[in-house]
Write a structure and sequence with these properties.
By secondary structure, the chain is of the alpha+beta class. It has eight helices and eleven strands. The protein has helices at residues 2-20, 36-73, 122-138, 145-156, 160-163, 234-237, 243-256, 262-270; strands spanning 77-81, 84-91, 99-106, 109-117, 166-173, 178-184, 190-193, 196-199, 218-221, 227-231, 281-288. The strands form two sheets. A six-stranded antiparallel β-sheet has the order 1-2-11-10-7-8, covered by helices on one side. Helix 1 runs parallel beside helix 2 (36-73) and helix 3 runs antiparallel to helix 4.
Length: 294
Amino acid sequence: AILTRLVTRPVQALADAVRRLNRADREDSAVHTGTAEFDFLSDEIRSMGQSLATAERERQMQLDKARKIQQAIVTSGDIRVFGYEIAVRYRPAEAIGGDLADYIEGADGTVIVVADVCGHGVPAALVTSMLRVAFRAHFDARRPFADLFASLNSLIAPLSRTVGFVTMFAAQLRPDGNVFYTSAGHERPFVCRGRLVTPLESTGLPLGVDPHAKWTSNTLHLQLSDRLVVFTDGLVESRQLLRSEATERIASAARGSTDSQCAAAADTIMAMRPRQAHDDVCVAVIDRSGSRQS
C-alpha cells in the first residue's frame, strides 16, 4: 500500500500528464502527487505543455498568414477572357501546398499555366511561389514556351535534390481557337469535343530532372464549345483506383457536362477529390466560347 501511494500512483499521474501533452489540453498537464520530487516533475511537465501550446499557436498563425499569401498568388475562381471561359479550382492537402495555377492576358491571347511541385506543405509552397515569380519574369509572348521552360529548368534543377521535380503545362489560348502548348511531364490534359475525349501527350521531361533537358511545343485548334481540361496528379493519385480508371472517370465527368458552364464542370471534377486526400489538387477547365462575356 505504501509503495502504491508513494510511487505507483504518482507515476501513473505523471504518465497521464505526459499523454495530455499530445492532446489539445497541453496547458493543463500539471498534477499534484503529494511528494516533492514528483510534484517538481509535474511542474516541469506543465511548463513544457505551456511552451508547446504557445509554439503551436504561433505555428498556426504563421501558417494562416502563409495560406492567405498563397491564396493571393494562386489563381482560383472563374475567369472570362476574349474567346474563352476558364474555371480554376484549387485545394491543398495541408494549409498551404505546391500546386500552381496562373494566367496572363496579352494582345496575342491568354496564357494559362498549371504546375505541380513534388510534395506538399511548406517546402512545396516556397517553390511554387518562386516558380510563379520566375514564370512571369521570363515570360514573353514572342518567346517559345520551349525556351521559357529551359530557363525555368535552370532555376529548378539545383533544387531538385531537396524538393524533387516540377511538372508544368502552359498554353497560349489564341482568340481564333488556336492553342500553343508545352507540357513538362504534366498529368495528361485532354480536350472534350462532344463525346470524344482526346488526351494531350507530354512534350518533355518534368522540370528539375535533367539540367540539359529540351522541350517542344504542340498546336491544337479548339472549336466553339470545345473544352480543355488540365489537372494535377493529386486528383488521380488520391483515389483508390487504378490511374487509368481514375482518369477515365474525370474524362467522363468533363465529357458529360460539356453542355453546362465550365464553372459547374470544374466543381464536378473537384468533387471527385476524396476528403482524405494526401496531395494537393488543382483543376482548370477551359471552354472556347467565341467572345468575351460580361
